[in-house]
Specification:
heterodimer, A: 152 residues, alpha+beta, Pnp Oxidase, Chain A, 17% helix, B: 53 residues
C-alpha cells in the first residue's frame, strides 16, 4: 500500500478524534507482562480526561492488571478513506468511588455508555464495575493518507 | 450538600447505592446509572432518612 503522506495531528484534531469515537484499546502492564483490552470511553477535551467504566470478575486477568501499575495507554483509530487517523493517549488511571461523584462526573461517565465490548458472561454478583478517570499527560496523533488508486 | 436535600439513589439494575443532591439526581435521570449505565426512573430515588438530634 502506497503512503501519500503522514502528518501529525494538532491538539484540536487529536481532541476531535477522541471526542467523536467511543471505543479504543487500553493497554496496561504488570512488570514485563503486557495486557490490552477493547474498551468504551468518554472524553472531556477541556481537561483532557478519559472516563472509563471497566467490568471485571474476581479472578480475571483484567482485575489483576487494573490493580497493578496505573500507567496506561489508550489507542483510538478511525478510517475515513483515503485517510486513516490514530491517537495515542498516555496517562494514569485513577479509580473514582461513588463518594467522589459530582454532576460533571455523572455526565462524563454517561458519555462512556455501557461497555460495548464487555461480555458479561459471569453472574451479576461476581461482576465488579469500576469507574476510572485517566488524566492524559501526553496525547499524540497521526493521519495517514492512503493511495487506494495504487491498488485499482 | 445540604442534609435536607439528600436523596438516596439505588440502581435497580446493579444495586449501587449513593447519596445524591437534586442536581445529581437530575444528571442520573438524563445519563443513567453512573456505575452500570442503565436507564433509571423515579423509583430509584428516595428521600434520605433524617436523624434526630
Amino acid at each position: 500500500m502506497a503512503l501519500d503522506q503522514q502528518t501529525e495531528l494538532s491538539r484540536a484534531e487529536t481532541d476531535a478524534v477522541l471526542a467523536r469515537n467511543e471505543t479504543g484499546v487500553l493497554s496496561l502492564a504488570r512488570g514485563d507482562e503486557p495486557y490490552a483490552i477493547p474498551i468504551s470511553y468518554g472524553y472531556d477535551a477541556e481537561s483532557r480526561t478519559v472516563f472509563l467504566r471497566l467490568v471485571s470478575t474476581p479472578d480475571s486477568e483484567k482485575r489483576a492488571f487494573l490493580s497493578s501499575s496505573p500507567a496506561v495507554r489508550l489507542v483510538v483509530s478511525e478510517e475515513s478513506p483515503p485517510e486513516y487517523r490514530s491517537v495515542v493517549a498516555q496517562g494514569t488511571l485513577t479509580e473514582i468511588s461513588t463518594d467522589e461523584m459530582t454532576v460533571e462526573r455523572i455526565e462524563q461517565f454517561g458519555d462512556a455508555k455501557r461497555p460495548l465490548f464487555e461480555i458479561w458472561g459471569a453472574d451479576k454478583p461476581d461482576l465488579r464495575i469500576q469507574l476510572y478517570e485517566c488524566d492524559a499527560t501526553t496525547i499524540s496523533g497521526r493521519c495517514i493518507e492512503l493511495d487506494h488508486a495504487a491498488y485499482a | 450538600m445540604s442534609a435536607s436535600e439528600d436523596i438516596v439513589f439505588t440502581c435497580p439494575h446493579c444495586g449501587e447505592t449513593m447519596t445524591v443532591n437534586p442536581a445529581m439526581r437530575d444528571a442520573l435521570f438524563s445519563n443513567g446509572c453512573v456505575v452500570c449505565g442503565a436507564a433509571v426512573d423515579g423509583d430509584a430515588f428516595a428521600p434520605a432518612e433524617q436523624s434526630c438530634t
